[in-house]
Amino acid sequence: MNEKDIILQLQNGQEAAFRHVVELYQDRVYNTVVSITHNTAEAEDICQEVFIEVYKSVAKFRGDSKLSTWIYRIASNKSLEFLRKNKTQKRFAFVKSIFGVDNQMQHQPTDFQHPGILLEDKERASKLFKAIGKLPDNQRVAYTLHNIEGLSYQDICDTMELSKSSVESLLFRAKQNLKKLLEKFYEEEYG
Q1: CA atoms of 57 and 53, how far apart (whole Å)
Q2: What is the 3-state secondary structure (H, E, C) of the chain?
Q3: Is 36 in contact with 28 (CB distance < 8 Å)?
Q4: How far apart are CA 143 and CA 156, in angstroms?
């Protein structure tokens, strides 16, 4: 079944086509969401939101980009919405969430675990993902889509609705920022 047929079937409300799309993209969407948000606990809910949005919005999909690109765009946007919402909530609840009634620390920061990382690389990956999490949103999305999800520059351009030079600039700045953020770790690690 080609992409045009799938899109037509989706737009006609055929559940089998929607199930096919979910099965085809659910792992990629999950990995993208986890890579951007660093929150495995919320990733499944965000993925559900992504596919609900796909189902609701497919009638408006004009086919200007590939279906996968459109789905990546929705996943990126939902992930960024989650991050913005969390930043706002964290500002107001930070002290309350860390210390309980008896002033004892209740919250222990969790380590981020990406599903595709080998055990022996967990510490380095954790440092990398923490550094990626400190990047500005557009740099984080571009870097994640290119270096973690393996999307081409053109697919990133389509996903983020930016020119190729803008994507190249975002990736360059992301690499420069990551280099600065990771310098200390590498100095300690490799002396």
Answers
A1: 6
A2: CCHHHHHHHHHCCCHHHHHHHHHHHHHHHHHHHHHHHCCHHHHHHHHHHHHHHHHHHHHHCCCCCCHHHHHHHHHHHHHHHHHHHHHHHHHHHHHHHHECCCCCECCCCCCCCCCCCCHHHHHHHHHHHHHHHCCCHHHHHHHHHHHHCCCCHHHHHHHHCCCHHHHHHHHHHHHHHHHHHHHHHHHHHHC
A3: no
A4: 9
- The answer to whether the beta carbons of residues 29 and 50 sit under 8 Å apart is yes
**Alpha carbons 164 and 109: distance in angstroms, whole number:** 38
Give the contacts of 157 (CB within 8 A, at least 6 positions apart).
163, 164, 166, 167
Residue 25 CB partners (closer than 8 Å, separation 6+)? 68, 71
22-26, 36-40, 106-110, 147-151, range with greatest mean pLDDT: 22-26
Distance between CA atoms of residues 156 and 73, nearest Å: 9
Q: What is the pTM of this model?
A: 0.74
| Residues forming a β-bridge with 105 | 99
pLDDT in tens, 52-96: 999 999 999 988 889 999 999 999 999 999 988 887 655 444 434
